[in-house]
């Protein structure tokens, strides 16, 4: 046993040194297009968070993953790391988004589940997708990389693949209908999950989120198009009957969506899933697989007050998030106050109640591998959308994702 332990430790050191060496070379630009020897060639599937969008939806020069300064996904692919962008509802619940994510990757018509649709009062079927990785299966696994809510959505999908849905199974049997494949379970199709600034345990700012969403969308419109007149934003809430109508202006569509009753007392929408209560329910529904690696990253862009236990936004924080950062910094227990502008640090580390360990150079399957909090980085710095700091952090953000891609290929 001692010999086995020594060998394991030695492998861990070699793995850590290899990642450190390659990451260093990347940071200095010595490995621009040369592939690093890989243990797997599974693609990285990027899953956006709240208010997210696909490339081209808000203009050709604006990327969710990179803002206006870079194309993170494209750069990774150009350097030999197959990386694909998934696009789901920017406001759907994690259940709905996870189902959309499955079909967006695999291909087919979205089936939210007959039992789920009946319980929550929306349409059972959604859009049809060709699939960005239709060969996805147990032999062709994927790495899920989720920013913000995208991390929760990735966790929900991975659990559904493994465990299926007992409610959907019982409903299908009782009503004599065919059970969609996603709900049957026994699918070990995911190699790793990486969550970035994800509110695993919710956020105090969820109660203010609806008002904040207006500002985020309006701000994106001005950045992408220069005005609200040219706003083109797809909420992807077709199951709720909220698709933009023919001849309906974008502004009218926006107002109709935000005046809809779906935001009120509804547990099948994003605003509930981001609360501490909603996040806790998701944590209870999800589990860890002994065959999957789990990684988490968090950021902190606040500082503790001298005369109080409150936390305040850093001077470099994007102005829009200074309000929410101050709100979180003065709300809840002291351990919940340091934050990235939208998510408390404690919430981004790991889902409470699930196994974890702090990063030690030896990632282990079935346990959250918690990376050190990145001080000075706010919520949107991780995706290059802090338009104040994006130009300054461009190379660091690029290296951040290159390091993740390197690590994933070595798993």
TrEMBL record:
SUPFAM superfamilies: alpha/beta-Hydrolases. Its main location: secreted. Residues 40-405 form the Lipase-like C-terminal domain. Its EC number is 3.1.1.3. The keyword Isomerase does not apply. GO terms for biological process: lipid catabolic process. Keywords: Hydrolase, Lipid degradation, Lipid metabolism, Secreted, Signal. The keyword Aminoacyl-tRNA synthetase does not apply. Transmembrane segments: none annotated. PANTHER family: ALPHA/BETA-HYDROLASES SUPERFAMILY PROTEIN (PTHR34043), ALPHA_BETA-HYDROLASES SUPERFAMILY PROTEIN (PTHR34043:SF3). This is triacylglycerol lipase.
């Amino acid at each position: 046993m001692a010999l086995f332990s020594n060998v394991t430790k030695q492998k861990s050191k070699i793995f850590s040194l290899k990642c450190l060496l390659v990451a260093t070379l990347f940071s200095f630009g010595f490995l621009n297009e040369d592939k690093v020897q890989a243990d797997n060639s599974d693609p990285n599937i990027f899953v956006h968070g709240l208010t997210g969008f696909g490339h081209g939806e808000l203009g050709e020069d604006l990327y969710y993953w990179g803002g206006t300064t870079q194309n993170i996904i494209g750069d990774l692919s150009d350097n030999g790391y197959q990386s694909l962008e998934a696009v789901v509802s920017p406001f759907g619940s994690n259940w709905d988004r996870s189902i959309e994510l499955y079909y967006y990757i695999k291909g087919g018509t979205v089936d939210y589940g007959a039992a789920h649709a009946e319980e929550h009062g929306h349409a059972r079927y959604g859009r049809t997708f060709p699939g960005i990785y239709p060969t996805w299966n147990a032999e062709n696994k994927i790495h899920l990389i989720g920013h913000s809510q995208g991390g929760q959505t990735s966790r929900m999908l991975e659990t559904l693949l493994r465990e299926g849905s007992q409610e959907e199974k019982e409903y299908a049997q009782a009503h004599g209908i065919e059970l969609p494949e996603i709900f049957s379970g026994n699918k070990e199709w995911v190699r790793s999950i990486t969550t970035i600034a994800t509110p695993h345990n919710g956020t105090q700012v969820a109660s203010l989120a609806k008002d904040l969403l207006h500002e985020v969308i309006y701000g994106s419109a001005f950045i992408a198009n220069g005005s609200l007149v040219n706003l083109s934003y797809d909420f992807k809430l077709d199951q709720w009957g909220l698709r933009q109508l023919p001849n309906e202006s974008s502004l009218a569509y926006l107002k109709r969506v935000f005046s809809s009753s779906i935001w009120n007392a509804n547990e099948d929408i994003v605003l509930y899933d981001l609360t501490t209560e909603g996040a806790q329910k998701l944590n209870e529904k999800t589990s860890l697989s002994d065959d999957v690696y789990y990684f988490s990253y968090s950021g902190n862009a606040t500082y503790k007050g001298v005369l109080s236990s409150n936390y305040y936004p850093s001077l470099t924080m994007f102005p829009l998030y200074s309000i929410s950062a101050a709100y979180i910094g003065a709300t809840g227990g002291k351990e919940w106050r340091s934050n990235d502008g939208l998510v408390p640090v404690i919430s981004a580390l790991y889902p409470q109640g699930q196994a974890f360990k702090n990063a030690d150079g030896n990632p282990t399957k079935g346990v959250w591998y918690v990376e050190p909090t990145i001080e000075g980085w706010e919520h949107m710095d991780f995706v290059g959308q802090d338009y104040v700091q994006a130009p300054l952090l461009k190379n660091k953000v690029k290296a951040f994702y290159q390091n993740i891609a390197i690590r994933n290929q070595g798993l």
